[in-house]
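This section describes the prediction task in plain terms. A model, or a person checking by hand, is given the sequence of a single protein chain and must write out its three-dimensional structure as a string of tokens. No templates, partner chains or ligands are provided. The sample shown here is typical of the held-out split.
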Amino acid sequence: MPSRTANATSAAASTPAAAPPAAEAAPPTAANWRGVRAAIDIGSNSFRLEIGQLRGGRYRRIDYLKDTVRLGAGLDDQGRLGGEAAERGLACLRRFRERLTGIPGSQFRAVATQTLREATNRNAFLLQAAEALGHPIEVISGREEARLIYKGVARLQPSDQPRLVIDIGGRSTEMILGVGPLALRAESFRIGSVSLSMAHFPDGRYSAERFQAAQVAAGAELEEALEPFARQHWLEALGSSGTAGAVSQLLAANGVSDGTITPDGLRWCIQACLRAGSQDRLDLAGLKPERRAVIGGGLAILYTLATHFGIEALRPARGALRQGVIFDLEERLAAERTPEHHDLRDDTVAELQQRFQVDVAQAHRVQQVARALHERLAPRAALEPQRELGWACALHEMGMMVSHHDHHRHSAYLLGHVDAAGFSQNQQRRLGELVLGQRGGLRKVEAALAEPAFAAQLLALRLAVLLCHARGSLGVLPPTLVLDARGARLIPPEGWATQFPRSAYLLREEVKAWSRHPALKLQIAEG
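The expected answer:
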């Protein structure tokens, strides 16, 4: 496995195998914040912080910190996260916060994966974690995780060959097929080195029967991937991060291979475990102490993948999730700076409109009115809330494909659960709450209304839906919105209420709905 340093200047050499001490990488000065991006990967086994700089299309790593938190081991039988694992995670995030001092919040993202997708009490932990880090944490779906992994690999290890990329994490395994920068298929499976080791090697003892049982369990979870990821679909296989990197180093350190993972090499590793009998007595060159507790499960998954998918050679990849998050963030920021750059989420929304047969003309009418109203309600709003409102308008009727009755509830469910490339689960839930609240009483979104930014978004959406309810041209200018100390006041053009009596009636009902909630007072001046 080639040596890589923390300050490599080429993209191909920017991902070292081990984290350098924080003191060795001085933070950039204030004059050099341009192009600095950071990503935190809150994984089930390890937490990772990557700080890098993008200039002229090239990526240079500034710093990389890793802490083996083993968060996934903290889930109990009811799926609740707590105890020492949660405390280790919070302590790690506090350390990361110190290293991120000075970097603007808009220039880094923190994403969480399978353990926090599963945890039934994740919201409580996320509040504590956001406080510890001083920054919101996004829970991403399995497919979004896979997409970002491939983005990191494709950028740092470019190739035009059809490729299979595998990432074995603590509680999930991602598989991606891609060509060049494009991920053609991305899936996530709920099997990982931590979860499989806890299930089949709970006391750290190895036996042939336990390895066989672990491989059967891994094969059962991965069985549905056999056809879509079969050998005929790719020419080379790469293993990203975590387990693949650890086993590659182990094989190279013991002279079994040059770091390439092969079925023979995996059998050698499994035999070494069986000879040792337990993880405590497993003493192999290249095996880090923090990997011992999860190496059994990781080997079982790797061997299952190699034998079931015909992987004769799995080579370690240079990129990983954290770099993918950085490159994805850079694309978002570029879309904010210059119109010619495009945010992937816009493409996703357009694809969802097509898939769910949304009335695009109506969505566009609602968008135009809502944006104009929102600009009056929140004139200093950041770009992201404005975009969220636009996406909610674009998809507020997607539930009509299920049923016209209560379509707002169907829209909310779909938005909260559909695979949407580029979106975190947090943001999808926020969009879902917006479209849920587009009509009817406000009690169903009462908790979210406590946030002023959400209240402004929702009012703009509700008023736009109401004013565009006839699904045609507005004919004349809609009422204007004025925000003052008394709240929000709608001022219709002269004669508007007479010309549009139904809309005027609906506006009066809307005033009544908001009068029951302290979040935002709405008044209307009769015209």
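For orientation: Confidence is low (pLDDT under 50) at residues 1-26.
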